[in-house]
Design goal:
- With about 120 residues, the protein is of the alpha+beta class.
- Helix content is about 30%, strand content about 40%.
- It contains 2 helices and 5 strands.
- It has a 5-stranded mixed beta sheet with strand order 1-2-3-4-5, with helices on both faces.
- The N and C termini lie far apart (about 35 Å).
């Protein structure tokens, strides 16, 4: 898959995840927030809790499931990026968590599975 194709798949997954979060009563605060520690795909808020969402979209299972793609190194980057966001937004005292939006596409490129896993990454 080309870089442009990967980006298109990623954008599709992120757009769908943002829609699903909104449908579940979350306010999307930011998308693709970047810092030195990495990127947070979606920052959302619900009931006073900041939710950092890592979106993993896969086409087929050749490279494993979306859940399997979260390596220990990626976990560390997500935690560091979340802490950087909290520091930059004077929100260190806020409740927060890191969720995973696991998305799989079928052969036609349609979403065949969506799962939002709360607290998928813990400190």
């Amino acid at each position: 898959m080309t870089s442009a194709a990967r980006q298109a798949v990623g954008r599709l997954g992120e757009d769908y995840a943002a829609q699903q979060l909104a449908a579940r009563g979350c306010a999307v605060v930011a998308r693709n927030w970047r810092c030195a520690e990495g990127e947070i795909d979606i920052v959302a808020e619900r009931d006073g809790v900041l939710i950092f969402v890592e979106v993993r979209t896969r086409r087929g299972d050749r490279f494993g499931t979306p859940e399997e793609s979260i390596t220990p190194r990626k976990r560390a980057h997500l935690i560091a990026a979340a802490q950087a966001y909290l520091d930059e937004h004077d929100a260190a005292d806020r409740d927060w968590r890191i969720d995973l939006a696991a998305i799989e596409l079928d052969r036609r490129g349609s979403i065949s599975r969506f799962e939002l896993i709360e607290n998928a990454v813990e400190e």
